[in-house]
Amino acid sequence: MEQISAFNLVVGPDNIAIVTIDVPGEKMNTLRAEFVNEVKNLLSELNTLNELEGVVLVSGKPDNFVAGADIRMIEACQTAGEASQLARAGQQVMAELSSLRVPVVAAIHGACLGGGLELALACHSRVCSDSSQTQLGLPEVQLGLLPGSGGTQRLPRLIGLPGALDMILTGKSLRPRQAKKCGLVDDVVPQSILLATAVSLAKKGPQPAQPLPLKTRLLTGKLARTLIFNTARKKTLAKTQGNYPAAERILDVMETGLSSGMANGFAAEAQAFGELAMTPESAALRSLFFASTDLKKDPGSATPPVSVKRVGILGGGLMGGGIASVSATKAGLPVRIKDINDKGINHALQYAWSLLDKKVRRRHLTACERNLQMARISGGTDYRGFGQCQLVIEAVFEDLALKQKMVSEIEEHCAPGTIFASNTSSLPIAEIAREAGAPGRVIGLHYFSPVDKMPLVEVIPHAGTDAEVVSTVVALAKKQGKTPIVVGDCAGFYVNRILAPYINEAIRCLAEGEPIEHIDNALVKKGFPVGPLQLLDEVGIDIGTKIMPVLEAAYGERFAAPQSAVSAILGDDRKGRKNGRGFYLYQAKHKNPFKANKKQPDTSVYSVLGVTPRVNKPGEEIAERCLFLMLNEAARCLDENVLRSVRDGDIGAVFGIGFPPFLGGPFRYMDSLGASEVVSRLTQLAERYGERFTPCGLLQQMAKDGEFFWRKNEPVQ
């Protein structure tokens, strides 16, 4: 049987070749190693066409150009040399494409990422659609890699060094208008005329390269380059804390190419790609990518979901407004909000408007698109409109009686079979459903704040929740742009349960006299986005500590907070950022943008606690105390079936609380250390600091048997 090609060549009567990229049997176009010979044969055929006047590359997929290279190629590599050879093969194909004697134009609609953008960069011109689906970027750094098919060399020469560094070091994508403004694409047009525009551009024949703007050209000199790279290195190290080697290698490779020529740059790029592919950091980041991709296919339950056409929201506060916003803008559903007064409704509407308006200012949306999305949200102080809702999400205060009352009212005012989802962070779902007429239609749906930014949601069925309800809520969460994990109905569920001991231990360190910034810096250096005390400030000290007694009642002494310290802090009316009184100062406004994110600790906390701040323990020890309590609790959650799989545990920790991605999640990290090492370090901590560090039974058994989490526990399909 003849294999269907991923590259289809048609030459029109105008002597313009249209090469359609359409990988058979896949939703997304990705570049694979086996395509190298296919592309080389295609280029050879193009070179034999004497009448050829131009080539246009276009996708056969409805919503993507080329979404990148297939990462599974790297998994097959055993050595850095093999991975480097992959990069060299890609570089060679791109070089042959770039050296075609006729103009080559990329017609881009949808995702053009990674190897896809490197393919477009090898073309002589690029045109993209003005669709919101179109984005261009080089996200390899997010996998612990760098662009390996020439991207580190071609991009800075096309758009200038500052813009290229920003794209490659962050992995961020550009929208069509942004891409046009910086010179990444030559034109932005409606999708309906994309191919015709690309053909027209190809017919014009070879065009001289557009000169970079004067300001950008001034930054290409040796002195300016040196300054830019030195500044970039300092900023990169401050951001990565040295935990992400790819960022530093990107700078080295780009500097080599600009100072020693493209040939040396390509050689350095291929070598660095191979070496980075073998690092534990890249392996961990790739594992998260595969886990996330696998999770997207998980329906939550085997029973098909109900179609949700309209969503109701109870509560117009920060969480209610955020949930309403993602339901209307991401899921595209009509949303009806109910609050006890008009002020709450107005707050939710204003919050949704502010998020949409920000997108207009950034040119991600037009004013018309903003208005259309905003029109999906309405609200009132009664239950009018809720009769048409298939699913209602409550986001009211953490009060069991209130939530039970909400269930009763929804059953009274909504159609039979309406799903009631509670956005609770700690209350048992079974208790919320206890007095319901249809307890099988009640489920937990725990969002994280701020809802528009945090990617994770926990889906919490109680023992009697219908399987159809689970799959319906999982499907809705995905439409909202979220990553849902299904977890057990227990105090704290999964994310807050592993976060609480981590926060508790940080407060203990503070009560022992360790300085605020010393504690937080220790965890930031370990790879967390912010330290535990700053995180508590952001969440709200009153809210963050409210769950502690609930967890202590459920699980015992190991969850006991340092009560005297917590009471003293709350007694001093310290709630964190929201009232400007916490562990950090919030009054001062820095005029210097480089100092704006450098928060200053509020030293008056020490007198409240009755301690004199002094560094007594090294940062590594503080980080180990906080982190290993989290690891121990994660293992317990798996052992008690709070988690369905180690996949969900790793994704939940990384996406929910910012567990260091380069470590791959709690379970991947414990596997890298080995269960014996984890048990040994917990035992040492228990001897020094108390029984709360005693390694759980599962870890002790795994250490004895030499087991690994990822070998022993496969994801539930």
List keywords for this structure.
3-hydroxybutyryl-CoA epimerase activity; globular; cytoplasm; 31 helices; 6-stranded mixed sheet; N-(1-d-carboxylethyl)-l-norvaline Dehydrogenase, domain 2; 3-OHacyl-CoA_DH_CS; 3 domains; lyase; 8-stranded mixed sheet; 11% strand; Rossmann fold; alpha/beta; enoyl-CoA hydratase activity; 717 residues; 2-enoyl-CoA Hydratase, Chain A, domain 1
Written overview of the protein:
There is one protein chain. The chain is an alpha/beta fold. It has 3 domains: 272 residues, 2-enoyl-CoA Hydratase, Chain A, domain 1, CATH 3.90.226; 183 residues, NAD(P)-binding Rossmann-like Domain (Rossmann fold, 3-Layer(aba) Sandwich); 179 residues, N-(1-d-carboxylethyl)-l-norvaline Dehydrogenase, domain 2 (Orthogonal Bundle), CATH 1.10.1040.50. 50% of the residues lie in helices and 11% in strands. The strands form 3 sheets. An 8-stranded mixed beta sheet has the order 13-12-11-14-15-16-17-18, with helices on both faces. The chain has a 6-stranded mixed beta sheet with strand order 1-2-3-5-7-10, sandwiched between helices. A 4-stranded mixed beta sheet has the order 4-6-8-9. The radius of gyration is 27 Å and the shape is globular. 49% of the residues are buried. About 1% of the residues have low confidence.
